Sequence to fold (325 residues):
Amino acid sequence: MESALEIKDLTVSFSSEGRKVEVVSGVSLSIPQGRIVGVVGESGCGKTVTALSVMRLIPEPPGRIEGGEILFDGADILHLSDRDMRSLRGNRISMIFQEPISSLNPVFTVGDQIGESLRTHLNITRKEEKERVLDLLRLVGIPAPESRIKNYPYELSGGMSQRVMIAMALACSPEVLIADEPTTALDVTIQAGILELIDDLRVKMGMAVLLITHDLGIIAEVADTVYVMYAGKVVENAVTRELFKHPKHPYTVGLLNSIPDLRRSKERLDAIPGVVPSPGSFPPGCRFQDRCPLAIDKCREEEPPLSEHREGHYSACWRADEVTI
Ligand SMILES: Nc1ncnc2c1ncn2[C@@H]1O[C@H](COP(=O)(O)OP(=O)(O)OP(=O)(O)O)[C@@H](O)[C@H]1O
Ligand code: SF4
Ligand SMILES: [Mg+2]
Fold:
């Protein structure tokens, strides 16, 4: 299937106090047209940094894209001029940011903020702009859009702000949407509504979606394929159903076992012991070794490459074929 966006071997570092640490190491992922690709992993694994690299929004310095390619419409985004990038960002590729409230400007109304993207990228009249903003508010399920359009961000609930952020991201009908934890701050009902909405729009607009979340339950519901990230790397990748049925990385098994079991209780079960090592202190060999129940000596010496273990199913683990759920 043709890719709408392809990230190849992306490496990103941050420097502080003269010390440079790699936070994303050789990440490759591909988002086919009209599909939802999920990226999952615990906090600090490099999900947002990967997404911000696509938007060319890594603050440089202290950040630096050390290598790799991000291919979109025949060109490498990393080599576009700032001007070309501005015309792409928020227009053909857009992003729902992880922190909606702080991403909205408190001194502008909802209508102004959504309209800004339209004014920047499309040549439309004020009247057309207003109609389009109202359409977008309706599309994201905001009731009474005629009055909401005049609201300031402080007048909106968390769920409403999130919907406004989605409307902003969708304003110019992007070909690629990056949704970074779009539902984390919301309660379960609103969460389901927003996921449904993103999926709906994918179908209606043929949009390709990169959906970032720490929650495999969300991935199971909407993603076609999944990339599991750990400590700045992709450690497993497969079609969603395959990954859930036959996980090939002990980290994925840990994530699957910590999904609350709805049949028995709502408690979180078997959280993975330990924490993600911080960038700059990754051990030699496999980065998951200190938390892995299957670790052997080889894991402490050699880093496992991402390789195919079943058809279209990749895992970076020396013992992938012994992994069971
Ligand atoms: N501006 C920055 N300066 C220095 N380090 C940064 C910066 N932004 C991110 N990092 C570091 O990069 C690493 C990856 O961060 P990132 O935000 O991509 O994680 P994440 O997977 O999105 O986590 P979360 O689930 O908490 O959103 C972290 O160790 C983080 O501290
Ligand atoms: S390579 Fe070794 S330490 Fe790493 S996940 Fe596989 S078994 Fe565990
Ligand atoms: Mg993040």
User: Anything to note?
Assistant: The CA atoms of residues 78 and 131 lie 35 Å apart. The chain is about 35% helix and 25% strand.
